[in-house]
Amino acid sequence: MTTVLRAHAEDQFADELEILAKGDDRPRPPGWRLSPWAVTTYVMGDGETITPKYIGPRRIVEVAVATLATDRALLLLGVPGTAKTWLSEHLAAAISGDSTLLVQGTAGTAEEAVRYGWNYARLLAEGPSREAITPSPVMRAMAEGRIARVEELTRMPSDVQDALITVLSEKTLPIPELNQEVQAARGFNVIATANDRDRGVNELSSALRRRFNTVVLPVPATAEEEVDIVSRRVGQLGRSLELPETLTGLAEIRRVVTVFRELRAGVTEDGRTKVKSPSGTLSTAEAISVLTGGIALAAHFGDGVLRPSDVAAGIVGAVVQDPVSDSVVWREYLETVVREREDWRDFYRACRDAG
């Protein structure tokens, strides 16, 4: 595992899952490794041995876990960077012990990714049989009683989305070529994620949406909460990437988070100055990326201390997605907000140089 760039959740946090399983005497739904209470504790942390994986309202996680304990599928909906994928992975790891049964939705996702394909060499040699079928992650999850994950559901073509309807409503997957079907074992369910700010997506049909319970993941409510999220994830990524030790002051993290929050909201933190918002999302995930890149710069090309010059280029790249309109938005924000803050002078100069 030392050569793996990013371990699956069930491997990375195996010790925590084992601790919870040993002390978990609450009722468990059929096929679950942990009780709903223990799953929620794993995700939210207990302040001692179990680290928090998701920072946000506990009730949201409780509703999501309760949904999966029924026969209803779960749809995690939200803007980019609200930890939809992260949460779905950890829920699957805690419930099934396996977060790898994943369908990645794209414009090119074929129906076989949801249903099944064929091993054409065996099909031609032996004819249609169960052995010649190449099962999809959904088919495997049904047969094994596990959680299947479908990422970016709305990016999949509508006909591929609708292949889930029978799976979710009847809990069966027909194989008409063999006049057979796969029936879902106890413990099977589906967690899907969707981005509600994407352009050019394929909207879910009402028939499919009715088969999901939707949980909307909010952006962090306060700056302190977002700073906490960013600090934790930057630290985790730094350790997993084995970046050299860098003095990561909270001042720079707070500064990046403040810039992103103000541009997202269209107003400064004190509410006194309105600013224009760029075309990008400026999500928490992008803030984490900017700071991780800054740490790499400081470690390999600087003096080991994270400075404004290390994060400036990343911020400009995140804000200016449209070279024309976003450049105007960024320059106005820089001159009317950043320049006026006495303790941001070094940051202002670094951003001017980077731009």
How many helices? Answer: 16
Summarize the biggest pleated sheet. Answer: 5 strands, parallel
Determine the oligomeric state from the structure: single chain
Radius of gyration, in angstroms, nearest whole number:
23 Å
How confident overall, as mean pLDDT?
Answer: 91
Number of strands: 9
Poorly predicted runs are: none
| End-to-end Cα distance | 41 Å
Shape: globular
Helix proportion range: 40-55%
Strand order of the biggest β-sheet: 2-5-8-1-9
What amount of the residues lies in strands?
5-15%
User: What is the string of helix and strand elements?
Assistant: HHHHEHEEHEHEHHEEEHEHHHHHH
**Structural class designation:** alpha/beta
Give an account of the 3D structure:
About 45% of the residues lie in helices and about 10% in strands. About 40% of the residues are buried. The mean pLDDT is about 90. The strands form 3 sheets. A 5-stranded parallel β-sheet has the order 2-5-8-1-9. A two-stranded antiparallel sheet has the order 3-4. A two-stranded antiparallel sheet has the order 6-7. The protein has about 350 residues and is of the alpha/beta class.
Describe the structure concisely.
By secondary structure, the protein is an alpha/beta fold. The chain contains 16 helices and 9 strands.
